[in-house]
Amino acid sequence: PLIILPLDFPDTPDISNPYQALSYSTAELKHWAMAPDNPAILEEHNIPIAFTAHGLEEKEFRTNLIRSVERGLSESTALAALTTTPAEQMGLGNQLGKIKTGYLANLTVVDGNYFKEKSEIISTWVGGEEYPIKPKYNVSAVGKWSLTIGKTPYQLELKKKTSSYSGHIVQDSTEYKLSNLKVDGWFISWEIRWDSTAAVSRFTGHIIDNRMEGVAHDLQLNWKALRTGGLEIEEENKVPETRSELSVFYPEGTYGLENPDLESQTVLIQNTTLWTCGKQGKLEGIDILFKDGKVKEIGSGIKPSKVGIIIDGSGKHVTPGLIDCHSHSAAFSINEGSQSVTAEVRIQDVLNSDDIAIYRELAGGLTMANILHGSANTIGGQNAVIKLRWGATPEKLLYKNAMPGIKFALGENVKQSNWGDDHTTRYPQTRMGVEQILRDAFTSAVEYQKEWDDYGNNKNKWKKKIPPRRDLELDALVEILEGKRQIHCHSYRQDEILMLTRVAEDFGFTIGTFQHVLEGYKIADRLKEHGANASTFSDWWAYKYEVIDAIPYNGALMTDVGVTVSFNSDSQELARRMNTEAAKGVKYGGLSEEEALKLVTLNPAIQLGIDQWVGSLEIGKDADFVIWSEHPLSTTAICEQTWIDGIQYFSLEKDKRIQKRDKDLRKKLVNKILSQKDNEKKEEWKHQEEESPEYYHCQEEF
């Protein structure tokens, strides 16, 4: 594939203020150091490229291209990227891109090598017509001059460094610096400020051999000058750039992996306390063997294999990887709130595998998350169940075994109760409108489903008809009707929860999981009767009016009735310690420790329809596990290692090494930047990173 490559390399950031330097991430500093290498790297991998000047000022394009050539891009590839490659891609390779008989006379004339900074472009030809760039009459103004403005004598010195002029005027011992000094062919102009309180004076004139004359416009005086001596043209002693020695991390920036191609390992943990969260329950002094990304064996005295890792589990506790059934981490956007039904949008299309929240959550023992659309509308977008494979691409985060899902929402958010006066026109604005829009949507889906069934079953009838129009929004709702996509519904109040169960039963489907469901304890028997699960908060209450009846005993009370309950985070920060969230099930409601741990392991796996692969440590299940320093429900427990599919994605030991590596790297980058010549433009630095929004709750920002 052709890559049209921009050459808008970042300017050297101003980090002279140590506090200002903190606003630049290490990834951005690395981008500054490595961006000019990009063309050469693509060339080395035989990827065809063309260049675009998008985002650049007029002279920056060639300057940046020369930088890339100095860093290893061959001149032949650079020339092709400017000529033959784009011509061929446009299907005009027989007319453009070459100096050849019969081709259009589009030319660039240079007084030397185009890829050398000292060379200047003389003219450009388009269709045989010349457009001069460099003046035909190029007169040098370098030297010492005797200047007279009106009748007042001065001394003028003009210097040239590479292609730019500088100069100053001297009267007695006072020196006045010229600004905006330009020499263009025979013409010269400059500006000068005689003192800090005076206005700028503008001068224009022309050069004839060793004399100049012109007008001082703001002084309303004529001026003239005679050259009295010469000055050498200063050549800038510029050292050619070299390729950056830095390597790419995955993802780029702090905590990134140096090698993303990780392979599962054979791991034997000996003499440990194992929380299986399965039928075997909690086992003391036991061994567990992981092989080929799966749980291979559980027992005593397991013999270690010749190849693999042996971990002494004495005093340690091993649990399944924790699962968060309601998360908004690792996504560039959360809510599509422009209308009430947006079933066609997909979180998987905006996954952000570079989100640092992934690494932080791994450090808390989290291995899986259900990334949900927000609660801005009644029927929101489709979810994405992911494994927290740090360093992988968005596609590799997705857990293929997960049942497709979709986010619904009820209550204040969808009727825009707290959105302000500018949001009072979108339907619905009341709770009765929320129910009606649900019924309208599924009525449309039933009709759509019937039409497609008829089209599939009666081909002869449709021979002379236009096939039904494909509607991605209704496709998702039909999947719900057919039991192929489950609903995760944001909810608080009992009346609304009851309403949705009745709507679902009227259309012949079952709600998968009620999210938050803070009044679930009032109607737990109805939830069980309907067959819905509940993913709730451990102890959130009183953060807005519709949760006024929330109690911390909610999870335990629903569990006692027989509802499958999980605790979720709905927060990038809280997702880092889901183990202590589970412990609140013991404090509030008296769940056993094993049942409490299931609130963040097996139960969310059941809710997501993936419990045959994850959620417990049983033979044949995925090797997703966490090693804790002590009892996992303790507030002093530390996650020492987190493994997914038999691959270690976090460990305290590795984390220490990475932190040292990143501190040393940042120090090296800062020192390199501080040693650079200051940017003359001093423009505001454009940050390059796109980050996930800080959504702490699904209703916080729309």
TrEMBL record:
<protein>
    <recommendedName>
        <fullName>Amidohydrolase-related domain-containing protein</fullName>
    </recommendedName>
</protein>
<keyword id="KW-0378">Hydrolase</keyword>
<feature type="domain" description="Amidohydrolase-related">
    <location>
        <begin position="67"/>
        <end position="129"/>
    </location>
</feature>
<feature type="compositionally biased region" description="Basic and acidic residues">
    <location>
        <begin position="678"/>
        <end position="690"/>
    </location>
</feature>
<dbReference type="InterPro" id="IPR006680">
    <property type="entry name" value="Amidohydro-rel"/>
</dbReference>
<dbReference type="GO" id="GO:0016810">
    <property type="term" value="F:hydrolase activity, acting on carbon-nitrogen (but not peptide) bonds"/>
</dbReference>
<dbReference type="InterPro" id="IPR032466">
    <property type="entry name" value="Metal_Hydrolase"/>
</dbReference>
<feature type="region of interest" description="Disordered">
    <location>
        <begin position="678"/>
        <end position="702"/>
    </location>
</feature>
<dbReference type="InterPro" id="IPR050287">
    <property type="entry name" value="MTA/SAH_deaminase"/>
</dbReference>
<feature type="domain" description="Amidohydrolase-related">
    <location>
        <begin position="318"/>
        <end position="634"/>
    </location>
</feature>
<dbReference type="Pfam" id="PF01979">
    <property type="entry name" value="Amidohydro_1"/>
</dbReference>
<dbReference type="InterPro" id="IPR011059">
    <property type="entry name" value="Metal-dep_hydrolase_composite"/>
</dbReference>
